[in-house]
Specification:
Chain lengths: ~475, ~90
Amino acid sequence: MSLYASVLRHARESAQACAAAGPDGELTYGELDRLAKRWAGALAEREIAKGDRVALHLPKSVRALAMMQAVLRRGAVYVPIDPLLPQSRVDEIVRDCKPALVITERVMNGMATEAELSESVAALEPLAVSADNPAYILYTSGSTGAPKGICISHGNAEAFVRWAVDTIRPEPDDRFANHAPFHFDLSVLDIYVALHAGASVRLIPEAASYEPAALNRFLVEEKITVWYSVPSVLQMMMSDATFPVESELELRALFFAGESFPIRQLRKLREAWPGVSMWNLYGPTETNVCTAYEVAVIAPEREVPVPIGTACSGDRVWAESASGMVAAPGEEGELIVEGPTVMLGYWGAAPRGNAPYRTGDWALRREDGGFEFLGRIDHMVKVRGYRIELGAIEAALLHHPGIEQAAVIVEGEGLEAKLVAYVAGSDCPGLLEVKRLCAERLPRYMIVDRVRPMSRLPLNRNGKLDRRRLAAEAVHG
Amino acid sequence: MDELEVGAAVREYIVTEILEGDDEGLNGQTPLLQWGILNSMEMTRLLGFVDQRFQVRIAPAEISPAHFKNIDEIAAFVVSHERGEGADGRQSGL
């Protein structure tokens, strides 16, 4: 059992099929396996052993993807590092996970060619691993404080991939887009579900990741059949004139996760591409994807985001109410996840065994057994003595036809604390209208105090709305 | 001093001090409390403004939410208070 098994299998069975395409070219399954084998040999020569960490400080490319496979082939653990992180942050990660080797572009280019490898390492077979051996470590991006390495085993990743394969039923002629950077767990579906099926994964170049016209073109020209990204990226694509109509597309399955998709825009997308199967996935990086909801028809009266759905990937998911009990249908609570996709643990921390993972996310348990995501518990702020869920205010603001993006943050402290709404869209209303809008749907203590119109709200490296940057802009005026 | 004058001044105050200059759609009947334009802190500050501008001193104990329902009510209350009609009997049940 290894995440690498798919590459081996398809290299045997369909060596000529395209495995990956990206800014630096294409690799067939045969070429991918051969390159991974060569680099695994080079890693062996550098005495990389089973279980060692190998940090990959590389821009997104098919060669970087091949290097990930080489590390797996060697039975080692890859640690993708965002190439755009400031050096101090890279240093912190390296200090934390103590890799046996940090692979940069230069190190990769200097790796031995096949002819230079000694016979003994050139002939090395892939190292066997067990389901609970770590496969990769993902560091949480950009958060303040010390970086946390989320350690995912082969078995953790496989459990999710198996579910995705059963859901997507991928075929060798499928073409998966890869939007997310490799250090962001959305990329796990793109890469490993594609490789599992002997299909190809098409890497979106870093520079195009936030260019709506380039993304729309990519979707059409690369004949993408499976797409997975955060909603903010899809919204950006929709708001551009180049947004394609369904007849231009080969797309059959679309997944999104990582944040709530504002209902009005999702409805628009659902109506624009009626033939595409759409899924809202949920799961912190620590648990992979643990719930899923297939977005069918969206009722016209629905005002809140679609549910995150029911448990998947073999996991058990429940909500713990404020009283510490399992939430009954209609009750709210913190989502807790237990099962095969839950991480081994944070790198460097004591192993967590099979303990259930507390997500820190607040959800409503539905009558049908599924869940509706309500917000991060730590986004539930106290303003003037009231507990406030900022997401509920944002949802209310998004009802205005002229508002396309909204983020509410708290500025100031104590009695001076103010609810400040950052909004972007075609026709953003003034403060009075915003207050009226809030008053229609929210208790009085949740009515915003300030409105700051922007041309577009900032996104973080993973493409999600970047609240920290908003807060920083507020502080620095 | 009449209700028109007080109303205009209060409106001006609300637009500049609370609504950050946004006056679109604000009229004498706009529900100030219901829309969260005035809260208890803003009410107290508004009383300070009325005192300074019209020399009408109103103690917090004399007011009830009904007097701050909208700009028209505020103006009527300030004028009646200035004429010594006190809290004018319109004690609200709020």
